[in-house]
Inverse folding.
């Protein structure tokens, strides 16, 4: 957990245990397999997705995304001075994210949805679980494990969101300005995951922290998929 | 690379005030029953071929409705045809030659009367082609993805300024009589959306094109100026209003000597559409053309036939003879009737053509009839689709 100043060279680590990046890559592979079975995403792949699917997806995402910046802020406040770099990164990240939900709202209105209904919506059961878990983690002292949550959520933005946006556009005939949120996340989250990679390989992460990060990634991956499976529930 | 949405016309409406008025019923409403006027009227009616029209005037020539009311009624009909409410609209584009009032803009008045929620407005002024200028604006915003739904309306209430009291004591030649016995009232509307109608065919808007040739043509149709040139200090707004009226500045006039040039220029514009490939003559199934009189129908039809030898007369639609010349409303009133009466089949293409004599503007729109999308197959509740456990 504490920032290590005596980390062994990478080749020594890989010789014995697997690196945190390798372990996260496995989590990502499982996550992608699960996503492929999420109904709305499989319809997207097949090309049978409807405008109503896209509307529901935005509706459900929005209810969780409004909480994104608060849990990151709370995590920031729980990093002590020994974790100054992580605190700084979390503060920056929270600031960058805390208007993201407005992009979803713009997209939602641009496809004919009602802003009043969107804002009156509640989280689905998956979003409740995801958000609850994030706040729980963020409440811990020095919640380094949340880097695993970032790995999943930002990874989704960087690696998948633009593909989803393009596919929704292709199937439903949407303009760029109707898929802002997903298009934006490709760029923004690619920057964030770049920052994350730098942290993971910086030597700041010891074995205990690595275990926490991987475990958090596993839980968040499952709950994120649950959020997408449980639309409107 | 940026991607745009597609714009579809999904609902159509029209409103024609009062009962149809045949050629014998005109004088009761507009006046002008002296022998000279009578003779002129008969000559003009013979040339324009209009057999009946509608006026928002009662049998004594008193106004029964506002122009904004005609627009709202056409919009309500279009909304009902589509099965949505005014509150579903995010944009309203209105075309008219003259609103009821000088200020504010016509679209503000129409929106105020129509209701609904907050929306973008456009008041397109001009004459006949302002109809497609309004359509173009709405279609562009839909394609940009800025709005999911918009409405377009063309609306005219010319009749009140065609009544005898406007002509008493004023020197009015054929330049004003030609229009006096040609124009009438009405409104036509269409709903524009980024998705096709869920259960019925729609008209996909492939493109809209609007070209002005005012840089090389003088004014052809005018009001509010004393001659074809606008001169500083001598428009209707500059001097005494009574003086402006006495000089006939409030009569709508058209230099009918320029109309042959207008037809020639319009045909050249159409030829250009063919030459640059915007219109594929092998796949053009229908033409809905606005024209002021039947004389120009024949001129235009001959020109089309030169490029599209297979175009027979039943692929050509106009309802000028029965609905009158309603200016900026005409093209929408014609499109609504063609659509409602089942002239178009899925896969077919439609060219809308609107020449405007004002100062030589030409507007065209190319539409394709599309079938409703197939019912969504993958709409079973998500949990039944086997989320992994």
């Amino acid at each position: 957990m504490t920032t290590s100043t005596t980390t062994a060279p990478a080749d020594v680590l890989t010789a014995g245990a697997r690196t945190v990046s390798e372990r996260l890559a496995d989590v990502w592979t499982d996550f992608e397999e699960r996503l492929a079975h999420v109904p709305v995403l499989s319809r997207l792949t097949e090309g049978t997705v409807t405008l109503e699917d896209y509307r529901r997806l935005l509706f459900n995402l929005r209810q969780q995304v409004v909480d994104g910046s608060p849990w990151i802020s709370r995590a920031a406040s729980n990093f002590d001075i020994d974790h100054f770099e992580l605190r700084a990164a979390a503060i920056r990240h929270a600031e960058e994210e805390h208007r993201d939900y407005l992009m979803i709202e713009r997209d939602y209105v641009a496809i004919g949805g009602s802003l009043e209904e969107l804002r009156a919506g509640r989280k689905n059961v998956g979003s409740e679980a995801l958000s609850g878990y994030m706040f729980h983690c963020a409440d811990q002292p020095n919640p380094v494990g949340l880097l695993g949550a970032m790995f999943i959520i930002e990874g989704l933005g960087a690696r998948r969101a633009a593909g989803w946006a393009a596919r929704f556009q292709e199937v439903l005939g949407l303009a760029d300005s109707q898929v802002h949120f997903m298009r934006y996340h490709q760029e923004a989250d690619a920057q964030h995951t770049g920052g994350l990679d730098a942290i993971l390989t910086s030597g700041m992460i010891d074995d205990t922290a690595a275990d926490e990060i991987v475990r958090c990634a596993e839980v968040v991956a499952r709950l994120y998929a649950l959020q997408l499976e449980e639309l409107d529930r | 690379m940026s991607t745009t949405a597609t714009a579809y016309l999904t609902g159509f409406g029209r409103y024609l005030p009062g009962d149809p008025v045949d050629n014998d019923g005109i004088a009761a409403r507009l006046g002008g029953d002296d022998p000279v006027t009578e003779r002129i009227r008969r000559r003009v009616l013979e040339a324009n071929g209009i057999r009946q029209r509608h006026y928002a005037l009662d049998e004594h020539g008193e106004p029964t409705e506002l122009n904004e009311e005609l627009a709202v009624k056409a919009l309500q009909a279009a909304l009902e045809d589509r099965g949505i409410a005014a509150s579903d609209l995010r944009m309203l584009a209105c075309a008219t030659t003259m609103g009821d009032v000088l200020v504010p803009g016509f679209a503000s008045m129409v929106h105020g009367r129509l209701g609904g929620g907050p929306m973008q407005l456009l008041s397109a002024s001009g004459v006949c082609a302002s109809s497609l200028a309004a359509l173009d604006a709405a279609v562009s915003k839909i394609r940009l993805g800025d709005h999911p739904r918009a409405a377009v309306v063309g609306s005219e209430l010319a009749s009140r300024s065609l009544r005898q009291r406007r002509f008493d004591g004023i020197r009015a030649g054929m330049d004003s009589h030609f229009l006096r016995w040609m124009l009438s009232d009405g409104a036509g509307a269409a709903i524009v959306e980024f998705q096709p109608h869920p259960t019925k065919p729609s008209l996909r808007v492939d493109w809209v094109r609007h070209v002005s040739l005012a840089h090389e043509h003088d004014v052809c149709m005018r009001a509010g100026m004393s001659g074809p040139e606008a001169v500083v200090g001598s428009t209707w707004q500059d001097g005494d209003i009574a003086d402006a009226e006495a000089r006939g500045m409030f009569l709508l006039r058209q230099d009918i000597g320029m109309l042959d040039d207008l037809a020639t220029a319009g045909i050249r514009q159409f030829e250009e559409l063919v030459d640059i490939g915007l219109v594929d003559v092998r796949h053009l199934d229908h033409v809905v053309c606005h024209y002021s009189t039947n004389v120009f129908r024949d001129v235009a039809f001959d020109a089309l036939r030169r490029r599209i030898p297979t175009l027979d007369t039943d692929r050509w639609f106009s309802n000028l003879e029965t609905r009158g010349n309603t200016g900026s409303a005409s093209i929408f009133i014609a499109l609504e009737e063609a659509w409602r009466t089942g002239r178009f089949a899925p896969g077919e293409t439609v060219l809308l053509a609107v020449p405007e004599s004002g100062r030589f503007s030409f507007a065209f729109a190319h539409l394709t009839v599309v079938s409703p999308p197939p019912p969504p197959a993958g709409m079973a509740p998500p949990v039944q689709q086997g989320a992994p456990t």
About this structure: Confidence is low (pLDDT under 50) at residues 378-389 of chain B.
